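Feature request, filed as a ticket because there's no other form

It would be nice if the structure record came with a short human-readable summary line next to the tokens. Right now we just get the raw output. Example of a typical job, pasted below so the devs can see what we mean:
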Amino acid sequence: MRTSLVLLSARLLDPGTGRFLPETALAVSDGRISALGDDRATRALADASTTVVDLKGAVVTPGLVDGHLHPVSGAELTHGLDLSGCGDLEAVREALAREVRTLTPGAWLHGWGLDPNVFGDRPVEAAELAPVLDGVPALLQLFDAHSVLASPRALELAGVDGPRTFAQAAEVVCDAEGRPTGLLLEDAACELVERAAPRPTHAERRARLAAALRGMAAAGLTGGHAMDANGESLALYAELDEAGELPLRLRVAPWCQPGADADALRALVQQQGTGGALWRTEGVKLFMDGTIDNGTAWLERPDCHGESTHAFWPDPAAYTHVVGELHRAGVPTATHAIGDAAVRHVLDSVEKAQASHASARTAPTGQPLTGQRPVRHRIEHIETVPDDTLRRFAELGVLASMQPTHCCDFTRADHTDNWSRRLGEERASRAWRCRDLWDSGATVVLGSDWPIAPYPPLGVMAGARHRRPSRDLTQPPHGPEQALTALESLRAMTVNAAYAAGEEHEAGRLAVGHRADLTVLADDPLTTPATDLPALPVLLTVLDGRPTHRDATL
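Raw output as currently delivered:
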């Protein structure tokens, strides 16, 4: 068995214990760690074709995995105007005006990362951006990616001139006279206008995705749990994989939307396990609600505007049925649930599914499924939950998938932000309870939800520790009592990510026989202060034994 890679003079960090292994070198064969030992013995395993890297004391961890991201839609979305750095409405207007001056007549303007907090107490509507967008077809994605602000010209070109009815909790927001304000809530409404805009070619999508994934590898990511398979996603992953250009190992969960019938569920089950060398379809993504910021979450009590009172599924019992069918078929689910009522309903549904199908697992066709990984259901986001739901995660084996940088960058410690004002003090004080979930025995997985928040994993781990705005770390933390430790945040992107994917037997640790997915850092992430962690250099990223990023200093 040929040794393809040898790493020498390394500090090998075990995220399970937080200690360095006694060995100082590792060897890789056929994409797996084939040996751990001292420099001399490990170097002897190399031949003339082996890549040998002297790490000069750098720290090696198991490859960092983002527990929740959207590579294809993110690559497309972030190609437009970045509005995430605009702190007030005037800054948004100025950024839009600059972009408008670069457009050819009739061209569409695409923006992303718009923070609703810039509107203050004013409604989020296109009129606030007049006259900058007069006559310009524009689509501005709000930071949560669940809502879009469309200009009057964009609405006109799409033929949207009044309210619409949808099969899910979506809305074309209109004024008292029934005229659209420009705010579109949830995908079904957003797509009405998005369909009218020019779309990138397949080649453009492929190039943008490849560039985004290369950036992720350079940031230290070796894998990600991709939470959609929309559009050309699977074809693009397959193309990059076959060309040897896929620098992340991806676990892809296609969506199941309200209205899915038995045929749709059967297709989702049959799709499981398909993929290529470095990607596969596994699990199904569902939505139980929208977002607190745009009033589409599902809360046990309405927000301050009387909103966030309904589930994304018009009939929540239909969601429960779908989870039961998927569980019976051995298919893990990942459900977007932000509000307390949404989280509770997902937990109730999983409990019912486990009780109803505790014996054999069979597909909707009636045929038992064999060779399945463990059915580990998960809840995504979990932004506010009461005490009585915490222990149920561990009791039911439901994974808690959290994005701490959402708390850092989109809320404020003094609760003057839109999210906190909508919830009120009691519920805002229960924001992103990473610590409480961890202490209650839940398996916590961390991710970015890119493009909602930046993907660099060191920034995600830092946010879990300091809970401060990444743009101004001098600001006070939001809920510092919910911070994770340095070791916990590392585990959440290595050991726990592997467990979430049912891969703990071959990933998430530095052990012989495990995958050679590795992240090499200039120093110890456990002793680097949280506020300094995002700047810690990533020296080498290795996927399946192949370097996907190598710093010039090595």
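Something like this underneath would help us a lot:
The radius of gyration is 23 Å.
The chain has a mean pLDDT of 94.
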